[in-house]
Structures are given as structure tokens and as C-alpha cells.
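Quick one: structure for this chain?
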Amino acid sequence: MRIHGQSYRSIFVAGDGWTVAVVDQTRLPFAFEIRHLHGADDAAAAISDMIVRGAPLIGVTAAYGVALGMRADPTDAGLERVVELLGRTRPTAVNLRWALTRMAAVLRREPPAHRADRAYEEAGRIADEDVAACAAIGRHGATIIERLSAAAGRRPVNVLTHCNAGWLACVDWGTALAPVYAAHESGIAVHVYVDETRPRNQGASLTAFELGAHGVPYEVIVDNAGGHLMQRGHIDVCIVGSDRTTATGDVANKIGTYLKALAARDNDVPFYAALPSSTIDWSLDDGLRQVPIEQRSAREVTHVRGRADDGRVLEVEVVNPGSTVANPGFDVTPARLVTGIITERGIAPATRDGLLSLYPERAGATA
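Got it. Here's what it folds into:
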């Protein structure tokens, strides 16, 4: 996608052929900076500290983290160590485990002397597959926006999204925003209502940044405005991403997604989740009971980062000092509230049979 007219991926191998470069998302939207990862510890910290975030990008970063680890220690013990290190960085996004399992399976078949080169090759393949999957999600999802555009006449199609599921959450294109970008590129008038997405404000900082940089019209709204806008007919469709989706269509996504789905159901607004197949956890059939929900730092709630009038980027406290804080990072939207799931293979009902209609080869893997 484009930043100031230049095309970027969110992660890539730097010019030296081995350092891994990522867009530092903790610096956005006030500064666009590239950070270089020199070892597996750097990759683990990038994931844990949310320098990179979004389920697909977490998986790709973990894959490249394994490659960095193989440069330092390509032995069997080194491989096990780096997989364990990266595996404990974030609990909810299933892409992390998926990518590490794939990398480990490939590298165990290689002699240690060849593992570093093979790891970079496989990580690059995972990254390219993610780009292709997201582009396909965009094509399939754009058909929904096309139908809504035909019904809307001359006005833009209004899309509501929550958190950030654009190219910054993936390698390129994104998941929930891929249909928006595809529709925009094809000339369809589209407008995005961007939930600010407290407590980390990924919508206000990341989604708004990338939509603006790419030239897609948008407005930032407070999280609690979504239901109000739906009641007044201002939202045509909700499209969100997912960090883990069960084999039965339950969707785990950024905290607050469930409330948007409830409001959408009450107002007859279609609600879609867009995700690659790597985000489907075929071993789970009950998202509410089985998906681990990450409990994050209280500081994300008690403090807010922003830019002062004099240009300084500051972090300020906004909660009564000494308050006890709970900060669950995700919630689970039951499949019954999901109109459909947009994947790289098409759009399916949020049911086991619906998902298996797109991925019949996974029938034996379901719970």
C-alpha cells in the first residue's frame, strides 16, 4: 500500500539481505519510522510490545524471528529455543502458533548448516502467501460493497470497522480493509467510519493513518457512536478482522467487536469478519469457552499517548490515580451474530458447514 505515494509492505528483508525491517506501529500516526530487527529477541519484543500487531503480521514476524534465530544458533536446541521464545509473546492470535509450527516442521527436515537460508526462504513464502490471501479477500469482499453501492445510488457506501485490520495488520492490503481498498481502486465511492478503538486507539492512529495515506475517505468516531449511527441508517455494513476464528464461526477480535455485532443485529446491518484461513483455529468449536483472552497492561487504560499543541508526543494519565483496572484485549462474537466470513477462497456463512464448504480438506481437523 502507499505512504506519501511510495509503496510499502509492513515487513520486509532489508538491503543487507538478512536484517528484518518493520513499520514501527508504536510511532504512528505522528511519525512513520522503519525499525530493524537483528535477532530473535528483537522479533519477540516487537510482537510483545506491539511494534507489530495484527494476527497475520504477528505470524509473519514470528516466521522471520525464527530465521533470525537460525542465524545465531541453527542447532535443534536453538530451533526449539526460538520457537518457545516467540510462542509465548501473544496468546490470542492463532497465526503465531500456525507460523511457528510451519517453520519448525520445515526446518527440522534440514541439516543445521542449511537452516538459516531455508528459514528466510520459508518466511518469505509465508509473507507472499499472506499478501496473495489478503488481495483475494479484497476481491471477494468488494462484491459486497459493489452490491451495496448499486442500492445506495450516488452516495458512498458507509463501512464501519473496529480496531485496525488493514495493511498494517498484515503484510499488504489487510483483511477487513482489503475490500475497502479493492472497491476504492475500482472506482466505487466508499467511506469508512473508524472506531477509535480504546484503549490503544489502533483505529484512530493506525486505520485513520493508512486510509488517509491511501486516499480513502474516512471519519474517526468514538467507540460508542457506532450503534447511534446504525440506528439512523448511516452504516451500510460492518467489516472487522479476527485474531482467531473457531471452526464453528465464532470470531475473536479486538475488545468492543461484540458490542458492534449486537448493534448491527438490532439494526439489520450486515456484519462480516474478514480473515485468511491461517486465522481459523480448526481445533476449537466454542469461542467463548475455548479462546484464550489476553489480559493486557493496566497502563494502556490509565494512560493515553498524544501530540501536544507544541508538537511534542506525550503520554498522560487519564484515570483517577490508584484505580483498579481490568484490560481484556479481545472479545468473542458468537457466530449467530456474524453475517458471513470473508476469506481468500470466498464468503461463507459463519458455521462449520459454511467454512468447510470453502476448506473441505479441513474436515478431519475440526473439533
